[in-house]
From TrEMBL:
SUPFAM superfamilies: FKBP-like. This is peptidylprolyl isomerase. Belongs to the FKBP-type PPIase family. GO terms for molecular function: peptidyl-prolyl cis-trans isomerase activity. It is an enzyme of class 5 (isomerase). It comes from Desulfacinum hydrothermale DSM 13146.
Amino acid sequence: MKIQPNTMVTLRYTLEPVDSQGFHYPRGPYKMEVIMGHDRLLPGLEEALMGVDEGATVEVVLEPGRFAGESEEESHVSRREVVEEGPVEVGDLRHTMDENRCLRPFRVLAVEGDRLRVSFAHPLAGRSFRFQVAVERVRWATLEEIKAAKSPVRGQGR
């Protein structure tokens, strides 16, 4: 069976950056089951897998912006807005609280007196990543799985 909208797909995959920059995360293999056609995968990955047969192995490269977003422009944060206590150094990952009282992570780029030059971009933003994906199983989703897929994914604001 081929992957198409409303199919449940079991995938085994590995992930690695295309560039030679540091990557301090496990590369896998990971295994997941996901419903297709309901924005539950990264858009470029879901697009690349549509039409692939059960049992196939594919390589998918997601260009910058399609994996963890684009590199964001720099911003400034007052030291008073930093949630964590203690000294702040360049390279630190810290948090501020947004208007909805949600923590918002940022990386410190420079300490400039009482202000910090920061980036709110994901640490992997602006990089290309290669997925090696094995399609282990494809089946039609049940009605319950389709209904559940139409519910908003937590944190995606849909």
